[in-house]
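[Solved] Which block belongs to which protein?

Original post:
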Amino acid sequence: MRATAFVALVAASLLIVAAERGDIPFEKHAIDPGASETCAFADINGDGKADIVSGENWYEAPKWVQHKYRTLPVTNNYLIIPAALTRRMPSLPRSAM
């Protein structure tokens, strides 16, 4: 148990150092400055790439093209999102979910 914790601590330390030096390639993409605070990743269109589902839209990888698929009520600049975030989208075949 101690050895596992030590290895995890060393690995975390190395990742922090590498991230500070810029060794981990990462590119930030601002996709939507809207009111949604949550997102999920799924292959919505069946092309083998992870798309993003957030609020009223899904974003098609890799260029993050926005597709609206539902309308949600907004209260105080927050979307009211139903508990079933992963419901089947009406415009997609059942096999896509």
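(Second protein starts here: sequence line, then its structure tokens.)
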Amino acid sequence: MRTLQTILRLAMLAICFAGTGSLRADPPAVSADADEQTSGDVRRTLQAAKFLSVSARNISLSTRDGIVRLKGRVASERERGDVADIVRGVGSVIGINDDLLIDAPGPSGRKYLYK
């Protein structure tokens, strides 16, 4: 199954780059206004997800060329995945750069962060 997926991906790449004379793919041009709109849409969607912790709903985010960068703290690996799923669900998001840190209890009960 993986071999078939790889072959299909390579075939799609060959079709995309046929006749371009280059294998370099420029990212789609996305305006600054579109990036601001995407950031606002993502922010509103996260704020509406009341099942997320307060820190997860208030993470820092920025958008450039449709790629959303997430920074901040979340309560768990599961919540990190929930945030990523929510962001991917916003129609104008092309991709995600996940720089989220996870709050986790240490052996002594004190919290520490890990990525």
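Accepted answer:
You had them paired correctly. Confirming on the second one: The first strand starts at residue 60 and ends at 64.
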